[in-house]
Amino acid sequence: MSHPLLDLPPVTAAHFARIEQKVAALLGTEQDVVIMQGEALLPLEACIRAGAPRGSHALNIVTGPYGQTFGNWLRDCGATVTDLAVPFHTAVTAAQVAEALAAHPETDFVSLVHAEAATGNTNPVAEIGEVVRAHGALFYLDAVASVGAEPVRTDEWGVDMCVIGAQKAMGGPAGVSAVAVSARAWERFAANPDAPRASYLSLLDWKARWIDGGRKALMFAPAQLEMLALDACLDRIEDEGADAVMARHARAAAATRAGALALGGGIEPFVHEAKEAAPVATTLRVTGGTDASEVVAKALALDPSVPLIAGGGALAQEMIRVNHYGQDATAEAVAASLAALGGALTALGQDADTASAQKAVAETWSAE
């Protein structure tokens, strides 16, 4: 029996190339875009394996757990790594990056996460890109959480490897990702004898067999569902308007922050300054000895639909994350999240003011 999600025709090379063009437009780039058949960790690791050869010198900016992961990969490649780490409740500054590059003039690779959804901060990529460009290093950017929620201007910012995934603010599938690669980065990849080849991590194979071949023949059969979903979410962003999508995420972040401040009950924004808070997700610190995981569990018991999770790893007991991205970047989702948190905190004996939180959400949303 026929089924619309199973009996799908193959994705043609022409269709695949058209989707790449849509990704390039979203990223504001004329660089080569490669859509990879896996979650965003695939191109994130592929770029480091190819772009940080043994003997290279990397400045790895750490504002959250993904920055820590990139440092591990860089060291595994044989690069000499300097970590520029800042507290997770804040953002790195261009001045800090400039100081680190001045102290390590041999640096030829800089890695940065635009928005750390896990910790709720966002970094000033435009200013940092200017510093990196002046230094001459390759600039590697994880824009997985930021794309769709805030501007990502690949060429304008001088980004050499810009990696995105569709599963957050874009509201698309998790099983497909993309990277924009500059001419400088391709040269670095080609000069690296340890760059992956004949491998699922190989970007050079994509260039040789797909891009340099005129995008006429795909290397393998793409995953139809993921590619169709990526195409659909790009069309949805275009229909709504990229600026409107970003404005919706900004309203969701501002309303969540205002609602949390009004709610009380022993929670407060994890990122201290609103200007450094990512629009894709708001992180909250639980104080007074209450366990964040327990708060989230009780909130989800009250309303399983709300986009709440506890922090990961060492932050599991103190952090709550409100994932107001994609289709959850709405006033309704934010209000429901604060209501569930208020109910959970009250059940745990905290003095939470849910009515004030709801009023703050409504007023902030309408004012943005």
The ordered H/E elements are HEHEHEHEEEHEEEHHHHEEHEEHH
Unreliable stretches (pLDDT < 50, length at least 5) are none
Instruction: Provide the CATH superfamily of the largest domain.
Output: Type I PLP-dependent aspartate aminotransferase-like (Major domain)
Proportion of helical residues: 40-55%
Q: What is the molecular shape?
A: globular
Please give the order of strands in the largest beta sheet: 1-9-8-7-4-2-3
Describe the model.
The mean pLDDT is 96. 43% of the residues lie in helices and 15% in strands. It is built from 12 helices and 13 strands. It has 2 domains: 13-240, Aspartate Aminotransferase, domain 2 (3-Layer(aba) Sandwich), CATH 3.40.640.10; 242-367, Aspartate Aminotransferase, domain 1 (Alpha-Beta Complex), CATH 3.90.1150.
Q: Could you name the key traits of this structure?
A:
Aspartate Aminotransferase, domain 1, Aspartate Aminotransferase, domain 2, 43% helix, alpha/beta, 13 strands
Write the layout of secondary structure elements.
Blueprint: H1 13-27, E1 32-36, H2 41-51, E2 57-62, H3 65-76, E3 80-85, H4 94-103, E4 109-113, E5 115-116, E6 121-122, H5 125-135, E7 138-142, E8 161-165, E9 177-181, H6 183-191, H7 203-211, H8 224-240, H9 242-263, E10 267-269, E11 282-286, H10 292-302, E12 308-310, E13 319-322, H11 331-347, H12 354-367
Parallel strand pairs: 2-3, 2-4, 4-7, 7-8
Antiparallel strand pairs: 1-9, 5-6, 8-9, 10-11, 11-13, 12-13
Helix pairs in contact: 1-8, 4-5, 8-9, 9-11, 9-12, 10-11, 11-12
